[in-house]
Amino acid sequence: MPETNRVVFVVDDEAVIAETPAIILNQAGFQAIAFDHPEKAIAALAELIPALLISDVMMPGMKSSEFEGPQPNIRPPQHTFRVHLIKWTPRANLYSPNLLR
Question: Is the model's pLDDT at 73 over the cut of 60?
């Protein structure tokens, strides 16, 4: 039986916000890797494909939506893969004022 992929990438431009859930996920038995810049996470995709990618919604230079779709610079087109993506923001009140009411 194939081994389950327990790799999780956590991406946020604020290092402590990326590192905190990565620590918790590692303690829960996942292989979580924190990235403080989205380009670093994209570069890491050339070596390791996570089962889950957790990304801040808005970061300088890149939005989490840019993780969706093809990543032409990391693999030839014949190598496709699927990664689950969770978009989040620690500033929910700025993006969704009714969320916290």
Answer: no
